[in-house]
Amino acid sequence: MAEIKQMNSGEEKNNISDKYAKYNRKPVPGAQKGHGPGPGGARGPKPKIENPGKLMKRIMGYTLKDYWFHWIIVIVCIVTNVFASLQGTLFMKTLIDTYIVPLLGNLNPDFGPLAGAIGRVACFYGIGVIASFTQSRVMIYITQGTQRNLRNDMFDKMESLPIKYFDTHAHGDIMSMYTNDIDTMRQMISQSIPQLINSTITVVSTLVAMFVLDIPLTIVTLVMVFVMMYAAKKIASQSGRFFVTQQRALGQLNGCIEETMTGQKVVKVFCHEKEALEEFLELNEQLCDSAYRANKFANIMGPVNAQLGNLSYVVCAVVGGILAVTGVSGLTLGALASFLSLNKSFSMPINQISMQVNSIIMAMAGADRIFRMMDETPELDEGYVELVNAVKNDRGEISESSERTGLWAWKHYHKDTDTTTYVELKGDVVFDHVDFGYNDAKMILHDIELTAKPGQKIAFVGATGAGKTTITNLINRFYDIQDGKIRYDGINITKIKKDDLRKSLGIVLQDTHLFTGTVMDNIRYGKLDATEEEVINAAKLANADGFIRRLPKGYNTMLRGDGANLSQGQRQLLAIARAAIADPPVLILDEATSSIDTRTEKLVQQGMDALMKGRTNFVIAHRLSTVKNSDCIIVLEQGHIIERGTHEQLIEQKGKYYQLYTGNAMAQ
Amino acid sequence: MLKTLGAHIKEYKGASIATPIFMIGEVIMETIIPLLMASIIDKGVGVEGGNLKHIYFIGAMMVLTALFSLLFGIGGGVYGAKASAGFAKNLRKAMYENIQTFSFANIDKFSTSGLVTRLTTDVTNIQNAYQMILRMCMRAPFSLLFAMIMSFCISPRLASIYLIAVVILGTILALIVTNATKHFSQAFPKYDDLNESVQENISAIRVVKAYVREEHENKKFQKASGNIYKIFCKAEGIVAWNGPVMNLTVYSCIILISWIGAHMIVQESLSTGQLMSLLTYCMNILMNLMMLSMIFVMMTMSAASARRICEVLNEKADLSNPENPVCEVKDGSIRFEHVNFSYKKDADIPVLKDVNLEIRSGETIGIIGGTGSAKSSLVNLISRLYDVTEGRLLVGGVDVRDYDMEVLRNQVAVVLQNNVLFSGTILENLRWGDPNATEEECRRACELACADEFIQRMPEGYQTFIEQGGTNVSGGQKQRLCIARALLKKPKILILDDSTSAVDTATDAKIRKAFADEIPGTTKLIIAQRVASVEHADRIIVMNEGQIYGFGTHSELLENNDIYREVYESQTAGSGDFDEKGGM
Does A273 touch chain B if contact means CB atoms closer than 8 Å? Predict the structure, then answer.
């Protein structure tokens, strides 16, 4: 089943990089992986489907939940349809034996009874057509509806998962559930299952009809069917084997292509075209070879089954002919004709079932992955302290207000005393002996202690991997700490509702992510009900207004593909504006200006300073000039705070900070 | 389009022709079988007392026919697989080879992911379509035709019913297909949008969570998926007519044939066996018609892939070697003469405007300027990654367009801004610069680029395996490896395009010092954001909006260049940098 996962995701472009990782991978013991768990964590041997029966039940349960009535209609339609065509086949016998043979040689034949019989058959056929129409109509609602519900549920679930899930699962793998896995499931629901129902009913009813018509011939047919199934199984296993090789070869080639295309400019610069071609040609040849083998067997399957079907037909014809001629089992000419039709309609569904097996296995593997994701534990929130609008009376007491007052307070219910207190939202953050690691085995931060007062600017500096970003990720509880406490306005943040905690924090991340939508929509993301004016003001504050106005459609310019049509610097400015409009008491800026050149940065800096005014600010930067005016600079090294103080104090200490700050001068 | 693609069938022409021939053979056999059937019933069973001899004979004939049919079927399957897999291989190869001749401008035109999709998904689509066409495109019409002919042989009167059915069903199917494709072509972009929004949410999950927008995103998504539901229900609703219409036609035919056939049998102008054969052909004819409509749908769907592949195949590299190329670069001097440059031929504002520069061999030149001031564009012209739009650019006294490109690029080493390492060992990566470099030479280059120190600390040293995209080394380490790789070329001109941005200042200084001491004869062009990286250069170019805004030594510029002074002042006293330091 592990291979099926591969087969399934192979064609998806989002997955190519993931696949290539499997290619040529040599283990690198001890190689640096950067800080935090990388997206490689979840890889490894793909799990087998342990309980296919249970899984099948779950899949069916999922679609039956909302569409049980539809399914009943479908089954009724299928049964009707099968019987309509079956009675049509059986009619052959009646036609010949009852209506034609007696009339033979009759000079004045009476076609009245025949007309009646044909009229009845026509009625049955008519019902069959209506049933098949109803079936295909209702099936659409089932398939598309189930797909829609599944998508919505998956997305809903995904949004509720903790950040850790996204750290430990390759994005391509998650994406592939929405594309490949849903698609294979759709195919199973829309085609395989109705086909299976249809085939089973057909097989059973045909078998009964065959037994009724003639037992010896039925046995002959059954023997042939077993031969057919055996051959199909043999070929399918061959073809399956080569399909796996093909998928592997495809993955390797895709990986090679992905890598070379990404580095195509480097290939040019180093005149490495010939070498790049060599590897490609070899893999290309391999893929061609395995694709040929896999398709060869898949192609042979059809003719072999068809001819075995024909053979079965011939054998029945000969045996039936002998029986009819000798009259041993009382087989009539009409019965033989009908039987031969039944023979055809018996071997066809068996072929169909054997062809559905593969796609069902694929769909099960996909469903397994989807349900695995659905079963993940969502982000836990045990917080009960809420953020509420508040009013302050003359005596400075705070009480809750139902209107938006601009003043916010933490509503803190104390269970032990059954009282509720209100604490004004100020943005006072305290780290108290905090230890943290992405997993318990390896601690990233050790005994972090710090206090940030409202209005202060706290800067973190340190090398890549020292734990700067990690600290800020703890404040908004993207991750939970192992030991120690973090307090926000004196309240332990684990007691605060996550949503309310995050609402009170503004964050500009290292990697800027924008959403498909207009520039306006993107800034408004920080405050969904912001007016146009507020958006423009926020953009002005971040110094983004200028370039936005120069865009072809100004604030209504559509951004696509993560803002691909903007420069990195422009995207950062939009991210700053987005944070500005949210107007949070605490602001976290993680390398927010790293991609802006120094001259532009100076301009942005003014906006940033305006933005930071009156808030608690956590700033991460690698250009020391941008953090010089901080109230406190914290120097981190491998998860420890090694120095802290204002710029002047640190310079005086002549420690690490001093070294780095003057490193410039040293080089002179 | 077909011609472009067809040209790449090449050595698989034989298989491509054999496949349909086999398929036709199979069809002929399959058409004969019902005929033999009729013979068994009529002349074997139907005659008074039966004719067992005839049954045996025809039975043997039928087995033989089935065997031939099997043979043809297998032949068609095997050759079809061979032809389509081979065709796909040739297409990929042709595209890949053509891409290798692409200039930077050509590469820019297609995005990386665009090229990857064309080489992978699109080719797979074509491969499947090709196999389908080879196997079915001949089979279906021929099968239809043969069955029709046979029917006419048996009874022209009854066969004409089929003819009418074919016309009616064909028209309806054509209507369904054209309508459905119209709806589906509207639906698929929406579907892509939906997937894109999922993708967006996965990569921006931190933003979503930081702004507590889960609900907002859920609502947005539900709306989009609800829309998809409606569109697809509509499109599939059209396709849903297929089955019932088909059934209706088949049933109508059966009833008509039965009624008329019965009359004819009684009148003794038709035999029972013939009636049965006719009914078999009925299914044959109509099923094949259905198959044809499916082939048509499949072909329209793969047309988009074919178009995208052709775009790559037809793209002509816009840089080529001159007829009598100069094969030696004399020295590392560079001269820009009134150079204008723009990426697009019809651009209004050129990226570089009237650039004049004279750089002596062995000089170290710093280049500084804001984002978008065309620093990279300037240096990219030197190794002829792009051609100048107007003016001339001389390297070693010769116009770059007169050099053999490989010779030029081997002498002008560029460390690009977006650096890429390839999966393979460190040593393998370094040898991109010089395939014959000894391990000692590689180490020497790494020492110069200050890369040796961290490589030595890796458990497997120079044999350490670099993952695809260099994910197991840090940004600064990657940059140093790329510098070492370029150094191994022993170039006459070395260009570093912001290549030490992730390297800490002290190491940066060390690398620069090594350059000055060890490769004094090489002309060095260093683009940097940090003044510290360029201030010791012999001369510094200040770029602003595509023009040379200043060119001189550090002290000269400090005195008379306002932009340089501004940048310098904003960076001195506090441009210390924490990247890398101790991060190893």
Answer: yes
Q: Count H helices and E strands in chain A, helices first.
A: 21, 16
Give a yes or no: residue B119 inside a domain. yes
Give residue B365's pLDDT band: very low, low, confident or very high (50, 70, 90).
very high
pLDDT tens digit string along B262-314?
Answer: 888 888 788 877 887 788 788 778 888 878 877 877 777 788 788 889 988 99
The candidate with the shortest Cα–Cα distance to A147, out of A404, A436, A363, is A363
What is the side-by-side order of every strand in the sheet holding A429-436?
A445-452, A429-436, A483-488, A491-492
pLDDT, mean over chain B = 84
pTM of the model: 0.75
Q: State percent of chain B over pLDDT 90.
A: 15
**CA dihedral defined by A135, A140, A141, A145, rounded to 10 degrees?**
140
Residue B226 lies in a domain: yes
| Averaged pLDDT score across all residues of chain A | 80
> What residue numbers bound the domain in which B183 lies?
2-314
Distance from CA of B64 to the nearest CA of A (A): 10
Residue A239 has pLDDT above 90, yes or no: no
Query: What CATH number is associated with residue B117?
Result: 1.20.1560.10
C-alpha to C-alpha distances, A599 to A607, B194, B378, B565, nearest whole angstrom = 14, 39, 20, 11
Q: Is B549 in contact with B542 (CB distance < 8 Å)?
A: yes
Look up the ipTM and state it. 0.79
Residues of B in contact with A521 (CB under 8 A): none
- Give one DSSP letter per residue of A444-458, joined into a string: SEEEEEEEE-TT-EE
Strand-pair partners of A432? A485
**CA-angle at B490, arms to B489 and B492, nearest 5°:** 115
Quote helix, strand, coil % in chain B, to nearest 5. Answer: 65, 10, 25
In which band, very low, low, confident or very high, does the pLDDT at A663 lie, cut at 50, 70 and 90?
A: low
Q: SS3 for B330? A: coil
Q: Mean pLDDT throughout B500-505? A: 74
Nearest CA in chain B to A308: B66
**Residue-wise pLDDT tens digits, A364-422:** 888 888 999 999 998 888 888 888 888 888 887 888 887 777 788 888 888 888 888 88
- Whether residue B91 is contained in a domain is answered as yes
Q: How many domains does chain B have?
A: 1
Q: Which residues, in sequence order, are CB contacts of A408 under 8 Å at separation 6+?
A: A387, A388, A389, A390, A424, A425, A504, A585
Q: Are A587 and A526 in contact (CB under 8 A)?
A: no
Residue B252's closest chain A neighbor by CA?
A122
**pLDDT category, B359, cuts 50, 70, 90?**
very high
Which residues in chain A touch residue B371, judged by CB atoms under 8 angstroms apart?
A: 567, 569, 596-597, 600
Residue A36 φ/ψ region, left for φ over 0, alpha for ψ in the -120 to 50 degree band, beta for the rest = left
What are the CA-CA distances from residue B135 to residues A608, B6, B12, B129, B291 (Å)?
Answer: 66, 17, 15, 10, 12
Q: Return phi, psi of residue A10, to 5°.
A: -55, -40
Judge whether B344 lies within some domain.
Answer: no
